[in-house]
Amino acid sequence: MKQKDIKIPFCDNCAVNTNSVFRHLSKDQIDIINFEKEFRQYRRGEVLYAEGNRISGFFCINKGIIKVFKTGFDGKEQIIRFAKPGDIIAYRSVLSNEPACTSAKVIEDASVCFIPSHILTDFVKENPLFSMEVMKLTCHELGIANEYITDIAQKTVRERLAEVLLHLINDFGLDSENYLKISLTREELANIVGTATESVIRLLSEFKSDRYIELSGRKIKILDRKSLEKISNVF
Question: What pLDDT does residue 49 have?
């Protein structure tokens, strides 16, 4: 795509449409972001930032899906979350003034806005509503991390895989044919569940045999959500 064909989104429209934390900013603050942000486009597999590196800003997702993950000593990824339109990532490293504690890679072609660090710190100081939303977001992500630690300790891999599928349904939804609106490799699924790829392949095959799901390449069709809920012990 040629540069002149790229349509850069305005933050005021995006914030309202995606219900992002920026919806609490004043018009002047929105104008500052629109003026100073850098609009970037990425293809699947490209890295936005790497764990341990210093970053000079944070990212707001306009389009696509980004996986946020940590890398173990053996090089294996542990996926922390998926960022979708309206989400912000790398903001905690900006606020703490520390090297990035995670890495971020594109799994669905993405458009993002890169926003300089000083904007986040300035707005947190200046705008109480915005500051509270950032605090709520941080607490929410901490809560998810605590739930994951509990699941790893107390649930079987089968239960965790069923729970992951349910979270993907809630976060991304299903299309008209009941396929998940996010396409993941078996390795990526394993990296969310916290197990070996071979285990995920075997369990997906079992779920398929039990008529809980159907598989079409990387696409997963949900046939029996109630049974997945029962297996997961979430609801």
Answer: 96
